[in-house]
Design goal:
Length: 283
């Protein structure tokens, strides 16, 4: 049973609130929204877009998108020019899923916007930064699925700039820092590589100084993207880790598109789990 059905909400409520509360939310947040606005129907969300600000407006934008409301274009197209980043990005994501051409330049800007360097590790994991990283991942996936060729250089540039930003950030941390198993921007790099694989951009890693470990896992993601694996597998990590058919298909791409020997193919695939969580296991 989904959370929406559990509480009698419409199906679009759970993904709409998840669009803002990336780390999870509960009934309390939904009830607080109802207390502020009086309901969860489409008319209420339309009113929130016109009268609301900040977090509630982002939720309302997502709700109208997931509900496929007939007025979504009329309401969200003006927000592509909003000075409020979260409103602008969420509107572009919703309209991009509908293949609205006017959203494409804004989606590209989402990935091109300079990433600020946090003054310390704690601020790199603030609620806003986690939301931005989640949104970047959504944009990368959306662009890969949409298939507009103008997105290739944007995705490639984003991959290069994120890796270089990551190196600067990590270099500024104390040697004894307690690091998480998977940084959110690493997951974003995986999304970018997957999207580039969907375009067949097999040379996307060339000229970027990735570590051998990161190059391995990004190469596997390029291969999985080329196979459009998400269309038949819900969990890519589990599929490449456990599914023999997936491993064989990925191995074939690694051979045909990257020129890897059978031993190299096996190593890339067997190392995948270790490479995915590089700080949990040795490399």
């Amino acid at each position: 049973m989904t959370e929406s059905n559990k509480y009698g909400w419409s199906d679009y409520i759970y993904p709409a609130f998840t669009a803002f509360y990336y780390g999870g939310f509960g009934k309390r947040q939904v009830e607080a929204f109802i207390e502020r606005w009086g309901g969860l129907d489409l008319e209420t969300f339309e009113r929130v877009i016109k009268e609301g600000t900040s977090n509630d407006k982002v939720i309302a934008i997502a709700a109208l998108g997931y509900a496929k409301a007939p007025q979504v274009h009329q309401l969200l197209l003006p927000l592509l020019q909003s000075p409020v980043r979260m409103e602008r990005w969420e509107s572009a994501i919703v309209l991009g899923r509908l293949h609205e051409e006017q959203a494409l330049p804004v989606l590209h800007q989402c990935l091109q916007e300079a990433r600020a360097a946090p003054p310390n590790k704690a601020l790199a994991f603030s609620n806003e930064d986690i939301w931005l990283e989640s949104s970047r991942m959504n944009v990368a996936s959306l662009l890969g699925d949409w298939g507009q060729l103008s997105s290739i250089p944007v995705l490639h540039s984003a991959l290069k700039e994120t890796w270089e930003w990551e190196q600067r950030f990590l270099a500024g941390l104390p040697d004894d820092s307690d690091l998480v198993m998977l940084f959110p921007w690493e997951a974003y790099e995986y999304k970018l590589a997957y999207a580039l694989g969907q375009f067949g951009a097999f040379g996307a890693l060339t000229g970027i100084g990735f570590s051998p470990l990161r190059a391995r896992i990004l190469t596997v993601y390029l291969a999985m993207g080329h196979l459009q694996l998400h269309k038949k597998e819900r969990d890519l990590f589990l599929s490449i880790s456990k599914n023999k058919a997936t491993q064989e298909d990925v191995g074939n791409v690694l051979e045909q598109r990257f020129g890897l020997s059978e031993a190299e193919q096996n190593m890339y695939i067997k190392q995948f789990q270790r490479d995915y969580f590089p700080r949990e296991t040795s490399t």
